[in-house]
Design brief:
Layout: H1 2-17, H2 34-52, E1 60-66, E2 70-76, E3 82-88, E4 93-98
Antiparallel strand pairs: 1-2, 2-3, 3-4
């Protein structure tokens, strides 16, 4: 009985100790290009102008942040009402929030 268990145990231990070289996973950071971010800014301005009943040229975009799976663009109206436009990872407009 011991003659069968010892080789089987050695095979199991040898199989467990063999390491496969698995490459480390890295997060992808897709950054929008200048053209793409300018399009996002225009969409944000249009939505904010419609929501706040003002002209597109009067909307000031003050910040742009990238998060893990989305983008946020902050801005203010001429009456100093703050807002945030949210975009998904591909740059598609999601919603406009009043802040």
């Amino acid at each position: 009985m011991m003659k069968c268990i010892a080789p089987a145990l050695m095979l199991l231990l040898a199989g467990c100790s063999a390491s496969a070289d698995i490459p480390a996973q890295q997060a992808q950071k897709a950054r929008p290009g200048p053209e793409h971010s300018l399009d996002m800014e225009n969409v944000c301005r249009q939505n904010a102008a419609r929501r706040y009943n003002t002209g597109i040229q009067q909307i000031d975009v003050t910040g742009f942040e990238q998060f893990q799976g989305s983008y946020e663009m902050r801005g203010v109206t001429p009456r100093r009402e703050a807002f945030v436009c949210t975009f998904d990872a591909e740059g598609q407009f999601l919603h406009l929030s009043m802040r």
